[in-house]
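Class, carefully examine what follows:
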Amino acid sequence: MSLLGFFTFTILVFSSSGCSATRFQHQHRYMQRKITLDLPSKIGINYGRQGNNLPSPYQSINFIKSIKAGHVKLYDADPESLTLLSQTNLYVTITVPNHLITSLGTNQTTAEDWVQTNIIPYYPQTKIRFVLVGNEILSVEDMRRNITANVVPAMRKIVTSLRAHAIHNIKVGTALDMDSLRSTFPPSNSTFREDIAETLMLPLLKFLNGTNSYFFINLQPYFRWSRNPMNMSLDYALFQGNSTYTDPQTGLVYRNLLDQMLDSVIFAMTRLGYPHIRVAISETGWPNSGDIDETGANILNAATFNRNLIKKMTAIPPIGTPARPGLAIPTYVFSLFDENQKHGSGTQRHYGILHPDGTPIYDIDFTGQKPLTGFNPLPKPTNNVPYKGIVWCVPVEGASEAQLEEALRMACGRSNTTCAALAPGRECYEPVSFYWHASYAVSSYWAEFRTENVRCYFNGLARMTTVNPGNDRCKFPGVTL
């Protein structure tokens, strides 16, 4: 029997018997060393399922294997997916949905029930390695539900239950967004927000440090770049070109935006007294498409970002960041598929690397071995600079009368002025049809409330257009970009 086979056999025997604490400690140390080596060596993929056209979990997991990802992150603990993953060599991250955090954080029995339901039936055959308690819990809605007060207690209670079952090689964390930081520029000046620094971040960092877990961060350089695309190099955001930024306080030289954002997190943790907690990227990627006003969201940029990201993160020896050179960073690409039922701007629905049938939106090599020059050329983008002109919002093609009626009701229900031009005898009343009235209504509503972060979406019933949908009599309100 090989050495690896011997260790594997030993671990299985230990897992299935009431062995001594000393043996479990040896098992834990071996598995921890193995995880430390394996986790960063292969790139992970986020498997979200907010779409009505996505393949089954069976097909999806086969697609994940075909792209040679090493890890998969689920946004829940789907029983079918966890069962299917037991037949693979993929490491698995599962997520406690945000709405369950309060109940888990306030009751040990509830946390034990969650572990009994979502981990014990699948582990160790399914290689669960991380449990993330919540995803981006600092959203306005989640803050209002006071989830933040219960996230660390929930994490502690899950760890207590795991250890009661002699499970020591599943790490527990939570995936935060960059909105957890107050300032990020320059990186060395970064701090966490004052409203959460004492109440959330300090207890979280103490927990992560004490359990030797990771600080998981969702990093989206696209949004940072697209807020100011004319004053920040696109190549700098895509890991290419010669652009650099030097932190004036530390002298550290940055050659890409992702490193700059990562080190912002590291310096913020250091300010609170935790300079050595490991970081992992729970989400990062680049949108392959988006709305007209979302500059730079295209296939070539998405392919370039993810290909260069994978090259960087799979390099041997590890590259790390300027603040932590040489340290490996577990990374999960976002996302496996476009998800057409996600809310928000168009980019939110276009981060996928695969079409629903498993064919690639663009070629990518998750092993990092393929030369960057070995990929087929992609069409040159036309939206790498901001669009200048008038944009309107109109219903999507194929919308039913019932859907158009819903869009009309949504658009006209907030303000008396939005749909005033559709009243009988007014300039936009004719032609009398659901499509015409809905077209005017959604464009008028979007133009009126866009400054309040209203998107041209209407639950998937609307899209932007640069073609004026009005006529000489009826002028449709639009937005000038």
In short: The chain is about 35% helix and 15% strand. Residues 21-38 form the longest helix (18 residues).
